[in-house]
Structure formats: C-alpha cells, structure tokens
Request: fold
Amino acid sequence: MKMRAAILTTCSAPQPFAKSKPLQVHEVDLDPPGEGEVLVKVGGAGLCHSDLSILNGDRPRPVPLVPGHEGAGEIVEVGAGVHDVKVGDHVCFAFNVSCGRCRRCLEGRPYICERAVAPRAAGALLSGAKRLHRDGEPLNHASGVSCFAEYAVVDRGSVVVIDRTLPLDVAALFGCAVVTGVGAVVNTARIEPGSTVAIVGLGGVGLSGLMGAVLGGAGRIIAIDLSDEKLGLARQLGATDTVNARDADHVEQVQEMTGGGVDYAFDLAGTIKAMETAYAVTRGGGTTVSAGLSPNNATFSLKQSMLVSEEKTIKGSYMGSCVPVRDIPRFIALYQQGRLPVDRMVSQRVTLDELNEGFDRLQAVATVRQLLVPHSRR
Reply:
C-alpha cells in the first residue's frame, strides 16, 4: 500500500530542525503483514526524547529510518498465524518486541528480550524483514514500530490490545512515557508507602514517574528540574516539594529537607548531570534508579568506596521493567479512574509536516509531550 511517512535521512542535522529538515515526509510503500505480523492504522504517536536523541546524533541509528516508537492505533489487517488479535482491535505499541521464548522472556522480563536485540539494531522487525520501502529501496524500522507514519506493520508481539473507548492519541502515551516512568517507580524500585522519593527530570517520563510515586503512596515527593513551569505542573500532579536544578545548592536543599537524602531517587532525564543529582540526593542505604538514556559515549562515575560504605543501590530500568500485556491495560484503567492523569502532560498536537518544529521545541525543553496525529493535515 501507499502511505505518507516521515523519513530521517541523516543523524546530527544542524539545528534548528525547522531549517535543516532532517525529517522529510514522503509517500512510501508498505508491504502487507507477513506471518506473525499485523498492519495498524496509526491514531497517535508521541514525540519522545529517545526520538530526539536519534535526530541530534546522541544515539544514532541506521538511516534512512522511519522513526517513532511511542504510539497507538487500530488493527486493519492480520498476517498468517495471528489468531489472538483481530481487525478492529485498538492497540498500543510496545517499543521492544518480545519473542516469548528466550531466557529473559521466560523469566518474566520480556522488556529485555534477547532475540529482539539484533533485528532492532539492524532496523528490522523480529523476523529480520523490512516492510517499508521508497523507490524500491528498504527503509529501516525504529524499535520495530516506526509510527511516524499513517500506517505501520509490526510484529504481533509489538502490540497490546486496549480499551476501545480510550482516544488513540492519548493511548499513545502508554507506549513509552507511562510504562517507562510509572514502571520505574512501581516495578523496578517497588517503593514502599510513606517513603521519600526524588524525581529528577520532568519530561513525559519524569512526570509519569511522579504520578507513579503518588500511586505508590510515597510520603514525600521532591520534583527536580531546570524549568519553573514544569515544576509548577509537578506540584499540580502531586509533588510535595520542588527544587530548581539551576540552583547551585540544589543537592544540599534536598538533603536538608529530607534529613540526609531520599529513600528512592529517579533519573528520568537521560543526562549524566541528572544521574549525578539522583545519586547525590539518595540517602545511605537508599536506591537510585535510572530510566533515562544518555548519549552512547556518556559515562557516570562514582567513588567505589562510598558505594560500599553507604550501601547504596543503583538500578537500571528499561521500559519500566514492564510486562506490556499486564501493565499497559492496568495503567490505562488507572487513567480512566482519574488516578493517573497522564493527559495533563500533553502540550500540543502536531501533524507529520510539523515534526521538525516539534523536535525543535523538545530540544529547547519548551514542551512536555507533543502528540503526532498522522492522518490530520493543516
């Protein structure tokens, strides 16, 4: 079939992206779904920092590439061997496909599926195939999803059936921001009710983590960011305290208000400075969790003797340690009950032709979560 899609042809394009236009919208060819695959009409997709890190060269990927990993849509065709989902089902994409058979999947950790690593790095689906083409040449898939497009062919393991009453653009948030942020708090850290928590970085993932801390019953939630506007939103969403990271003494402020540091600190920004802040505000015996992806060559250092003597724990969290088929529906149910107001994070909606400007806003930290509605045009 023919459809419109945004194609990234180069990483590290000069900014502003509105001028260099690293994302170009073209008509492309999309093959029908193969065995074990489904065709989805994309209803909404989020502009995430992980996408930005590809555009600005922090985490480059093979090009030409159709980006987009956070999204939702409606199944319009199923491939051979797919019997447990059907045409008309509304689905949320899971940005790391799981095979269900490798060691990691079998131990209940499908979010770090071993079989998904090689095809993901190669810009292919789990089968190794590429279903996107332009002028007869293959285009790479992003995270097995590529939802900056009107349609997407994905592996069956990349979709989770969701409630049809949920608007598809809002549903997109549950594919990355919500599972990563909320999951880091409730799955990876498993915070205890009454505990003290610091959230470093208040983008879509960070604000989701903050809402996860509210759900988990944290007694004190300290939000840390560079933006006073985002700190204000954090207070509306449940932060008990806010600290601007531009303050030279922001670490000391947290330590003073908590009597030495928090039980759990979360780096949800994906920068080394954020990770350093999170580790520094963690009390002795506490836990630091990082769910933000920093540039590939970035390193975080610490004094090993203090790690031992203070007995801190450092944990990585990928996809919020979520089992998508379990966690996405339950997080959606919490949203529908008004207990996880993730729609409050939405800054604006954009079209395919407005993606470059959208990523300029994200690079300038002038927005929280923008949603692409690919079938709309202005």
About this structure: The radius of gyration is 20 Å.
